[in-house]
Amino acid sequence: MKKIAIIIILLLSTIGQAQEQSHIKTIIYKTETATSVADPSVSQAIQNFSYFDKLGRPIQHRAYMQSNTGKDIVTHIEYDASGRQSKGFLPYVSTSATKQYDANAATESLSFYASPTMARTGNPDFEATGNPYSEKQFETSPFGRVAKQASPGSKWILPSTPADSDHTVRMEYLTNSTADQIKVYKAVAGTPSGGYYPATLTQDGFYTEGTLYKYLMKDENWTSGNDNTVQEYKNKKGQVILKRKYGTSTVNGIHTESWHDTYYVYDQFGNLTFVLPPMSDGSGSTADLEGLCYQYRYDGRNRLVEKKEPGKTWEFIIYDNLDRPIATGPAFSPFSNSVEPNNIGWLFSKYDVYGRVAYTGWMQARVTSGNRNTLQMARDTQIANLNENKTATDSNVNGVTFRYSNQTWPTGPACHILSVNYYDDYDFPGAPTSFPNIEGQPVFYNLSVKPKGLPTGSWIRVIETTTATAGELAYILYDYKARAIRTWSSNYLGGYTQQDAKFDFSGKTLYTVLEHKRTASSSAISIREDFTYSDQDRLLTHTHKIGSRATELLTMNSYDELGQLISKRTGGTDLTGGSPLQKIDYSYTVRGWLKEINKVASLTQPGEPADLFAFKIVYDNPQATQAQFNGNISETYWRTANDNILRRHAYQFDSMGRLTSTSYHKPESVSAPNSYKESQEYDKNGNIRKLERYGEFDDVVTAMMIDDLEYAYEPNSNRISKVTDYTGKPAGFMDDGDGFNDNADDYSYDINGNIKSDQNKLIEKIIYNHLNQPLKIYFNWGAATGATIEYTYNALGEKLKKTVTEVPRPVKVIEYLDGFDYVNGILEAIATTEGYVKYSAAGGSRPATFNYVYNYTDHLGNIRLSYTMNPATQQVAIMEENNYYSLGLSHKNYNMTKRMYDREIGGLIEFCPACPIPYVYNYKFNGQEFQEEFNLNLFDMPSRDYDPAIGRWTGIDPVVHYERSPYNGHDNNPAYWSDPSGADVYNYGWGFEANGDEAKDIYKFINALLSGNSAQLKIKKAKIHDFTISINLPEVEVYGNSAGLSWGTFGAQYIMQDWVYRKSGLYEYHFKELREKRWDDFQTSMDLIGVLDPTGIVDGLNAIGYLARGQNTNAMIAAVGIVPYIGDLGKLTKYTKSSLKMGQEMHKAYKVAEEAAGLGIKEFREIPGIRPDFVDMVNRTIYELKPFNPRAMKAGEKQLAKYKAAFEAAYPGTIWKTVLDTY
To answer: How high is the mean pLDDT in each 10-residue block of the chain (1223 residues)?
Structure first.
C-alpha cells in the first residue's frame, strides 16, 4: 500500500507540470455537452490557472477571459525572505487572454494601478495608486507576529523607515505593567443550589506585573497617545480579562477623559460568568450587577441555565437529556387576548430523531428560577420519548393539526403550536400531490423519490388569539440538483404566493414567474422577472413584467475590466437601455469603498439623461473636518434636481469612533452657521447624555435650535427615564413638558426592557409579543378617540398587518403580503428590487394602472429620492426627496414637495408638505418604514423600533455588545453603520457586515443555533442590490470592506460553484479555485474575529459559510463558538482548526504552511535539538504531524511532551500547549 500511495502522489504531482511553470488548471463547465470539450470557450466554462514555484507555493492566479472584455485577470503573489506572504496584491487585467504564466506580473500589477487607462481598466474613474497591495510588517522575533498592517492606497502605504505618521494598523504584543492597574476579579462557583452553581464576584487587588498578555491595536487614525487604541489583556489560559479604550465621556455630569474598561470574569471551570461594562467602572457593586452588568449561571453539566442582561429580568433555559435547549423563558405571550398574569410562559422546541426542529410553541406557565430547576430535574432523568416522530395521522394541539407525535415535554392544554417544519417527504397536511414540470424542468423529488435531508414544507402560525389557528403553509419543490424550482406559500386570508424559477446548467437564475392572490377569490397577479448575464456570469439586465403589460427594464448593468459595477440604467420599456429614466454611475476608492454615485459637480453628463441625484463620500481628504483613514466617513455631499444646490455633511468623531457632531454646509452658496447641525455627548456606555439639533431653516442668516435635549437615566442603568427639551419647540423631539417644571418620568419599561409607556408621545401602554415586537399601542388621546395601532405577525415575527383605529375616523388596515401592500383590501404597491410599483385601481373611463417608482439610496440604504415617469407628460418626475440628520430625522423646509399618482387625471398631482396623502410608501431611513400615525414617529425595524428624535431603540438590541448600551442606535456611528435588524458582523480590517432583512434571517438562524436547533435560512424573495450580482434563490446578502460598501453574496443551501460573485475592492470571485481560497480567507478572518468578539455573532455567520460548503464539522465548531459563555479558550481552539484546516486536511498544512503565514513557523529550528513540524506562535501550540495510527500517536505523545518542556525552558514564564491539548 505504501508503494501504491507513493506512485499515486508522484503521478498527481506531475499534473499540469510544464517546462515553463508548474500549474494546476481547473475547468468548471457552465453548459451541458455531449462530449468533453478540450478547450471550452468562456461562455462554456470557467477556467483558472494556479501557478506554483519549486517549493509548491502559489505565486500567481490567472482567471482566463474573466475581464469584462474577455481578457485574463491576474493576481500576483510573492513572499519575503522568510517565506511569508507579506504583500497581498490586488488583481490586474492582462493585455490578452493567453492562459500563460506572466513572469512580469509584479511589474504589470504596479503599472496597471499606477497609470490606469480607460483601455486597460474600462473605468473612467479608476483610482490610481503606487501601492496596489496590502502589506504586513512583522516583528523581529521568533514569533513573527504582525506589527503593522498597511492597506492599498498611497495614504496607507507602509513606509520604508519606521514612522508614527503613517496610517497603518499597528499591533503590539506586551505584558501588563503595574501602571496598567488591572483589577483582579474572581468568580467562584460555590455549592450547587437551585439547579445551578451560584458564583460570587469578588475583587482582589490588581494583577502583578507580567502576569497578563497585553495586545495593543492602534487603528489607521492613530497619531499619538492612547486615542484610537484598543488594549486587550488575556491570561495564560487565553481568556480575555479586559478590553480597554480611551476617550471622553460624560461622567457624573462632567466631560471627562478616561479609560473605558470592559472586564470579563470567569469561574474556575472557565465559564464566562460576569461582564462589567465601562459604565460600571469595574465596581462590581450589587446595584451595578443588577442594572449594568451581564451575569451567567451554569449547572453541573456546564450548561448555561440562567442569564441576566442589563435592563432585562433573569432569563432561563431548559435542556433535554441530550443537552439540547428545549425551552426558554420568560417569554411574553404571542397572542393578543392573553392578559396579566397569564401572558408569561415558555417558548419551546421539539426535535425529530435527527436533531432537527420538528415544531415550536409557547406554553403559558410561571417562569422562575425554582420553576426552571424543577422542570430541569425532570428532564435530566428522562431517557425515553426525547424526540417527536413523523406520524401517518394528524395530531391536534389546541386546534392546530400537524403530522408529528406529541410525546416530549411539554404537553397539555397550556401549549400552543407556533410553527411546524417538515423534511424528507411530502406527507403532511396541505402538501402537493401532483408534481408537474415547472418551466420545462422536471420535479425530481416527489411522493416516490423522497427528498431525504431536504426541507419540504412548513406551517407558520399567524398570531391573533389563542383560539385562532390560521397559518401560512409553505412547500418547496426541487429539481435533480436539489435546487428550489418552486416555492409556494399560503397567507392567512386564503390567498397564496407561488414563485417558480428557471435555472441554467450552472445554477444561475434565468427567470422567475411569480403568481400572487390576496384571497382565494381575488384575481391573480402574475409577475415575470428575467435575468441575462455576461460570459463572465455578471448580471447584465433585470426586467420586470406584470401580466400582459409592457416589460419594464429595472436595471442594465455595466462593469469595468475588474468586474466592478460602474453604471446601471434604470426604468423604461426600452429593453436595449437606449432611453432609460436614469443612468446611475458608481466610482470607488482603490480600497473598494464607494466614492461617488453620479457626479456632485454637475447633474448633466454628456450623452446621458440629466441626473436627479448625486452623492459623494469623502474619507481621507475632507474640506471642512478631520480626515478619516480607518474607513469612517469624514464628509458626504449631495445634489438633487429639485433645486440643484450642492449640500454637505461634515462629521466629527471621538477617539473611540463615536459620532459627536454633524454639521451642514452649502459649499457653493451661503448658509447660516449651524443650519441642520446635530451634536451629542455620551456616557461611558455610549448612552447619549446631551443632544443639540438645529433645523427648520435653510437660508442665509437663520439657524434655529429646535432641540436642546438633556437625558436622564434610571440609577445604575442604561434605561432612559426622561428627556427634557430646553428649547420648548415642537420640531424635532416633542417634549410633553416645558423643560423646567416637569419632573415626572417620561418612560416606563416591562420586564424585558421594552418601553411600555411614553408620556412625550402620549403612549399610555404598549403590549409586546414573544419576540418583543409591539402587538398593540394605546394612545392617551382621550377615551372617546380610542386611538390604537395594532399589529399582526406570524410566529417568526414577520409583520402581516397594521390596523390604525381612531374614532370616529374609518379604521385603516395595511396588509403586508409577500411584498404586496394593501390598504383596506385594495392593492397599493408591489415591491421591486429598485423601488416599487404603484397600483391605481380602475375608475370611470380609466383602466387600472401599474406605475414603476425608482429609489435613489445612499450607502446606508436611506431612500433619498424617488422618481417615476409621469404618464401624463411622459417626463421623468421626482416623487419625493428626503435628506436626513445623522440620527434619522428628515431635514425640513427644503425640497419637501411630494407627488402621487392620481387616477382621475392619469398622472401626478402635487401635495404640499402639510397635506394628508391617502397612501404613502413610507420607507425612508435605512430603508425602513416610518410610522407617523398619532405622531408615533418611530421607524419599524425588524427586531425593535427606533426613535430618530433621541437616537435610541425602544427595546434592547438583540445582539450583545458588552462595551455599549443595548439601547444605543447604530453603535453610536449612524454615518457609518446601517443597523435595521440589530444583527451585525464586522472587523477592523476587511470586514463584512450583514444587515437589513437579510441579517434578520441570519439573526434568526444564529438564535436557532444558540438554542441548539437546526435552522434553515429562508427569504421569500430574492433581492438584487446596487452592488450585487444576481444569484440563486434563496439568498443571504453579506456586504463588506471596512466602510461596509461593497457587496458579496453567500448562501447556506448551495455549494460554492453554484454561485456568481462580484469582485470587491479586495478580492476576485470569478472561478472556483479563487472562490474557495477567498472564501477560506473570509472564514479565517471571521474565525480570528470570533476569538476577539465574545458576542459570538461572527461565529454565527461563519457557521453559515461552513454549511454552504458542506464542511459540517467546522460548522459545528463555529456554532459552538456562537455561545458567548463558552469563553475565548474554546474559540482559540476553533481558530487554530480554521487556520490549519485540521481533520483530513491537517497534513496539507505541513506542505502548504504558508496559508497560515503569520500564525506560526513550519519546521521550527530556533531551539537546538528539536524540530517540531509546525509551531503556532500566537497561541503557543506545538504541532507534530504523525500518521493517524496507534503506534505513531504513542510516539507522538512522548515527542510532544519533550517539545513542550523544551519550549517552556527556552521561553521562561510562558505556558505551551501541544496539538493533543487542542484537539
So the answer is: 34 42 92 88 94 94 95 95 93 93 95 96 96 93 91 92 85 96 95 92 95 96 92 95 93 87 95 95 86 95 95 96 95 93 94 95 96 96 94 96 97 96 96 96 95 95 96 96 95 97 95 98 97 96 97 97 96 96 96 95 92 97 95 97 96 96 93 90 96 90 90 96 93 80 88 96 96 95 83 95 92 95 95 94 84 96 95 92 96 87 75 60 92 94 92 92 93 88 39 36 40 35 24 25 25 23 25 27 29 30 33 29 25 26 31 39 74 76 61 67 83 78 59
User: By the 8 A CB rule, do 29 and 44 touch?
Assistant: yes
Q: What is the pTM of this model?
A: 0.82
Determine how β-strand 471-478 pairs with β-strand 484-490. Answer: antiparallel
- What is the rounded distance in angstroms from the CA atom of residue 62 to the CA atom of residue 51? 8
| Cell numbers standing for residue 734 | 416633542
Do the beta carbons of residue 388 and residue 321 sit within 8 Å?
no
List residues bridging with 150 in a β-sheet.
Answer: 135
Backbone angles phi, psi at 510, to 5 degrees: -85, -40
159: DSSP letter: P
DSSP string, 52-109: E-TTS-EEEEEETT-STTS--EEEEEE--TTS---EEEPPEE-SS------TTHHHHH
CB 753 within 8 A of CB 956: yes
Nearest to 933 by CA among 765, 817, 767, 763: 763
User: What's the CA gap between 516 and 1099, in Å, rounded?
Assistant: 37
Q: Is the dihedral of CA 338, 342, 347, 350 positive or negative?
A: negative
Name the DSSP letter for residue 485.
E
Q: Look up residue 1125 and give its DSSP letter.
A: G
Cα–Cα distance measured from residue 460 to residue 482, given in angstroms and rounded to the nearest whole number: 23
DSSP structure string for 1007-1040: HHHHTT-------SS----TT-----SS-EEEEE
